[in-house]
Write a structure and sequence with these properties.
Blueprint: H1 2-35, H2 38-45, H3 59-89, H4 94-131, H5 144-161, H6 164-173, H7 179-184, H8 186-200, H9 205-235
Helix pairs in contact: 1-3, 2-3, 3-4, 4-5, 4-9, 6-9, 8-9
């Protein structure tokens, strides 16, 4: 019996190793493909701010690698998600596998929607506000590395925040959240949304409202989804 368990464990570790290798290989392949286009991608990403500078000989080269890796990871994310699902699917119930098949793509699309909203809506308004502090005597000189780090932080944060409906749906499914709880905490949640908007955006009212509105919509959608799952759970 012990030998069977050890063999099973070894087999699982071997499968995990294979899945990791395939995931890393996908990231490397996509990153390698994108590296030759890093300059063009950087030109697109820098449109909200315009001219960028670099202050060390290796900075731009390292940024090209960073852009290629970020892009490669993003393009490889469906492969990574598939490899994770294949690894865990054997131990899941058919209903749980079905849920992953539905929520996996939905989660990816919500993240993409949040990142796109950050880049196309929040970034132009926020950067315009921040650069507005420049004077005739003080001109902005934004380094390419700082800018890429800034835009990465904002887009990833918004992408993660847009996962709110999926998170609420999951918490409702396992019984940690109920529609009644969400309704009772509505005022606190709305206040938290505006505080979060103030923390993640430049300190101007317009940008904060631009972030708060979709978050409020996501919260209301999350409440509706929670009600649907809760009723279905207890009617079954």
């Amino acid at each position: 019996m012990d030998n069977d368990k050890k063999l099973t464990l070894v087999e699982h570790l071997g499968e995990l190793r294979g899945r990791l290798i395939k995931s890393v290989a996908a990231v490397i392949i996509f990153s390698g493909i994108l590296y030759s286009s890093s300059g063009k991608i950087l030109n697109i990403l820098s449109r909200p701010v315009g001219k960028l500078v670099f202050i060390s000989p290796v900075e731009l080269f390292l940024v090209y690698i960073k852009v290629a890796l970020f892009g490669g990871f993003f393009l490889a994310s469906p492969v990574i998600i598939y490899q994770i699902w294949r690894f865990v699917s054997a131990g899941l119930k058919p209903s749980e596998n079905k849920a992953i098949i539905i929520f996996g793509p939905a989660s990816f699309l919500l993240f993409l929607l949040g990142a796109s909203f950050a880049y196309f809506v929040i970034m132009p308004v926020g950067i315009h506000f921040l650069l507005g502090f420049a004077t005739d005597a003080i001109k902005p000189m934004i380094t390419v590395n700082n800018y890429i780090s800034f835009i990465s932080m904002i887009t990833i944060a918004f992408g993660a925040i847009f996962e709110l409906p999926i998170v609420v749906l999951f918490l409702t499914k396992i019984g940690l959240v109920t529609p009644t709880l969400l309704y009772s905490k509505r005022r606190h949640i709305i206040l938290s949304i505006f505080i979060l908007s103030a923390m993640l955006t430049p300190p101007d009212v317009v940008t904060q409202i631009l972030m708060a509105i979709p978050l409020l919509v996501l919260f209301e959608v999350s409440v509706l989804l929670s009600r649907f799952v809760y009723r279905k759970k207890f009617s079954a």
